[in-house]
Design goal:
Layout: E1 2-7, E2 13-17, E3 20-24, E4 29-31, H1 37-40, E5 44-49, E6 55-59, E7 64-65, E8 76-77, E9 84-89, E10 92-96, E11 107-112, E12 118-122, E13 125-130, E14 133-137, E15 148-152, E16 155-159, E17 164-167, E18 174-176, E19 183-188, E20 193-198, E21 201-206, E22 211-216, E23 223-226, E24 232-236, E25 239-243, E26 249-254, E27 258-263, E28 269-273, E29 278-282, E30 285-290
Antiparallel strand pairs: 1-2, 2-3, 3-4, 5-6, 6-9, 7-8, 9-10, 11-12, 12-13, 13-14, 15-16, 16-17, 17-18, 19-20, 20-21, 21-22, 23-24, 24-25, 25-26, 27-28, 28-29, 29-30
């Protein structure tokens, strides 16, 4: 199972899997977490390569979104067990825990902002890491699980299944978005927009006005990423979809149990899945790169 897919500065595809984190250079997979023996074969739920060359890993059991036709029943389902936050730098690992200031050791999402801070979403709130300091970020009226964090044009979007906020890095000033959907993912787009996946379809965040608008697909969307031309690729119940700038939807193909997407610098679409491992979509076909057992 592949839980997260990113690309580092060297062009490698980094993946978080049920058996550790790996880097794919186009030919071979190499363990990312070998410098930390406990993380090498542990489940990794999120991976984040930074512009400075660090790699951050969130280890531990992976949560799932509970699917129900009644959106009001949307919850995160956690298996037993705790996790850890690791920073890999220069062949050394540094562990961050609740004793360092994290709200929880169960980490949901990792994001780097333009100033190099790493924002950490957990099942009990939000924090940011500046150097070796962990600073809790206080959101209005909540300590709920953070489902998504993204930055675009200085605006930071933060979501739980109960609310959506947009704010600033420092000082932290937050504004709640009225009538927001139940958000599963937020990814930076082009031209001052962010793509917001939710239980109620695909939405677009407008950074300048700090507003959102409905785009398409009125049911559960696990993730969506910008296509580089103003539209987006999205995952919906085992299908990879393309949504153009007008909101028209085309089915790309079947990608069973896909949960995370990446468009690399060459324009290829990658999907991390629970049952088919890592899948890459080439111009004419969908190919399996890493088998399900990886």
């Amino acid at each position: 199972a592949v839980f997260d897919v990113r690309q580092d500065a060297a062009g490698r595809i980094l993946i978080a899997t049920a058996d550790g984190a790996y880097a794919f250079d186009g030919l071979n997979f190499e363990p990312v977490s070998r410098v930390d023996s406990q993380a090498q074969h542990s489940p990794v739920r999120a991976v984040l390569p930074t512009r400075g060359g660090d790699v951050w890993l969130a280890t531990g059991p992976m949560f799932q979104f509970h699917l129900d036709d009644d959106v009001s029943k949307a919850v995160l389902v956690w298996p037993p067990g705790e996790g850890r936050l690791l920073r890999l730098r220069g062949g050394q690992s540094r562990i961050f825990t609740v004793s360092d200031g994290l709200p929880s050791d169960r980490i949901t999402t990792l994001t780097e902002t333009a100033d190099g801070q790493v924002w950490v979403g957990t099942d009990r709130g939000l924090a940011r890491v500046v150097g070796d300091r962990v600073i809790k970020v206080v959101l209005p009226h909540t300590q709920d699980a953070i489902t998504a964090v993204a930055e675009r044009g200085g605006a930071i979007w933060v979501a739980t299944l109960q609310a959506l906020w947009v704010g600033t890095r420092d000082p932290s000033v937050w504004r709640s978005i009225a009538n927001a959907p139940k958000v599963t993912s937020i990814r930076a787009g082009e031209n001052g927009t962010s793509w917001i996946s939710s239980y109620q379809g695909l939405w677009r965040g407008i950074d300048a006005s700090q507003t959102i608008e409905y785009v398409a697909l009125d049911r559960f969307i696990a993730d969506a990423v910008a296509d580089g031309a103003g539209g987006a690729f999205a995952i919906r119940r085992g299908s990879a979809l393309h949504v153009d700038t007008a909101g028209s939807v085309a089915v790309i193909g079947d990608v069973p149990a896909a949960q995370r997407l990446l468009v690399d610098r060459e324009g290829s679409l990658w999907a991390g899945t629970r049952v088919s491992g890592l899948v890459q979509r080439l111009p004419a076909r969908v190919t399996n790169v890493m088998p399900a057992g990886g």
